[in-house]
Amino acid sequence: MYHLECIECHRKYSETEVIYTCTCGGLLDVVYDYSDIQITKKDLKGSLSVWKYRALLPVSRKPISLKEGGTPLYPVERLAKDIDMKEVYVKHEGMNPTGSFKDRGMTVGVTKALELNMKTVACASTGNTSASLAVYGARAGVPAVVLLPSGKVALGKLAQALMHGAKVLSIRGNFDDALKLVRALCDREGFYLLNSVNPYRLEGQKTIAFEIADQLGWQAPDRLILPVGNAGNISAIYKGFRELKDLGFINNVPKMTGIQAEGACPVVAAIKNNESMITPEARPETVATAIRIGNPVNAAKALAAIRESGGTAETVSDDEIIRAQHELASLEGIGVEPASASSIAGLRKLVDLGIIDTDEKVVCVTTGHLLKDSEHVLNVCPKPIEIDATIEAVRKAVFYRLKAEGI
Ligand code: AN7
Predict the structure, then answer these.
(1) What does the pLDDT look like over 147-182, one tens digit per residue?
(2) Which CATH architecture has domain 73-99+201-379?
(3) Any alpha helices (H) in 174-231, and if so which ranges?
(4) 230 alpha carbon to ligand 1 midpoint, in Å?
(5) Whose CB has fewer CB within 10 Å in the chain, the N or C terminal residue?
């Protein structure tokens, strides 16, 4: 019903093989035989979840699941008005079990690990992947090993990896160094690699596209905007929309629009310079530690997704990211981590530049929850006002505060 196929040389591999990239070095895709898949919109009634779409997922055993997916698609009218847009939605992936979109990939990836009879799972991570792998490893009863860039992982994510019992290794190096190491470790020790170079993980993440179309009444938006780090999610979501179009469920694939931080933007540079490959960045840096990645492993897929869909890529500064995070939180009540806010910052910038039309129907994906990175919040928000426990002190502080804010 499906096999793995190299996106470069099209060599095929059986679904029973443990393989992450082609012998030619190319990335692999999961390719389905659609003549075998009998599915109609009617089969997709019922509440949203990753496993609602299991006819389009590459596993047969009982899933290792914590009820992932089914995240809200919020209309954000106040924010849209502020940006001069008519119809903007936020798909809040921070509402997944561990607080990020990674759970969609991990429920499928860890289930696949069991199907392939793997005994240990492993990843490198800027934080969210490690939190999710620790949780799904625990759920599956399989040990997890995670390699993190030392000092650059938000506290909430580290807390999750630790509490859920992963073996947590803090690498003196950045994410790209950690990924190289874990790939070598998996090859040597036979651990199952669950970074997004693993095509099965991306199959879980493509359900973001399925849910968005489902939530919009089987329509695709004109444009999808999301943060890009290792470039797996943009590739996965594009694949999801393509599959829906091939199945005749939707008429158009949205313009895939990737946002990177100014200090970590190899995909944006390749798009702007019309290059066929990225040039890795040796020292990526941004406040959005989740996307502090200089050598995105899925770049080839992401560049194709952006170009084939007529999308684009843009950078945003750390200040723009922080401003967008504040806006989304205070104008709409949606709390996201810095990387996720880059999709909102990117929307504003691309509207200002006249690249996004104000009539477009846009969905921004916010990939992770605010609480993942509360240390950052304390750095960028005013401190709480400490006062005596008297009503006079409270009133004085409240009215002083209101006056200061001009209310
Ligand atoms: C909140 O956890 O790479 O472009 O190791 O945590 O698919 O890599 C996280 C990535 C966006 C970028 N938003 O997604 C990791 C990791 C958040 C993220 C991204 C990440 P990709």
Answers:
(1) 999 999 999 999 999 999 999 999 999 999 999 999
(2) 3-Layer(aba) Sandwich (3.40)
(3) 175-189, 199-205, 207-215
(4) 6
(5) C
- What DSSP assignment string belongs to 32-91? E-GGG----GGGG-SS--GGGGGGGSS--SPP--S------EEE-HHHHHHHT-SEEEEE
Q: Same topology for domains 2-39+101-199 and 73-99+201-379, yes or no?
A: yes
Residue with tokens 């030619």: 24
Residue pLDDT, tens place only, 25-62: 999 999 998 888 888 888 888 899 999 999 999 999 99
**Nearest alpha-carbon partner for 226 in 377, 346, 373, 76:** 346
Pocket of ligand 1 (CB under 6 A): 100, 125-129, 196, 227-233, 290-291, 337, 339-340, 367-368
Given a contact cutoff of 8 angstroms between Cβ atoms, the answer to whether 218 and 249 are in contact is: yes
CA of 195, closest atom in ligand 1: 5
Q: Give the whole-angstrom CA distance, residue 295 versus residue 273.
A: 17
pTM beyond 0.70: the answer is yes
CA distance 259 to 362: 14
Tokens 């692999």 belong to residue: 28
Residue nearest to atom 13 of ligand 1 (CA): 367
- Mutational pocket test of ligand 1: of 230, 260, 371, the residue with most ligand atoms within 8 Å of the beta carbon: 230
Specify whether the CB–CB gap between 223 and 237 falls below 8 A: no
Q: Whose CA is nearest to atom 18 of ligand 1?
A: 290
User: pLDDT digit string (tens) for 53-78?
Assistant: 999 999 999 999 999 999 999 999 99
Round the average pLDDT of the chain to a whole number and report it: 96
Q: Which amino acid is at 87?
A: E
Amino acid at 379: N
Phi, psi of 98 (to 5 degrees): -100, 5
- Dist CA 218 CA 12 (whole Å): 32
pLDDT at 256 over 80: yes
How far apart, in Å, are the Cα atoms of 102 and each of 122, 196, 224, 307?
14, 9, 18, 24
Under 8 Å between Cβ of 328 and 62: no
- Domain residue spans of the chain: 2-39+101-199, 73-99+201-379
Topology (CATH) of 2-39+101-199: Rossmann fold (3.40.50)
Query: Residue 337 CA: which ligand 1 atom is closest?
Result: 1
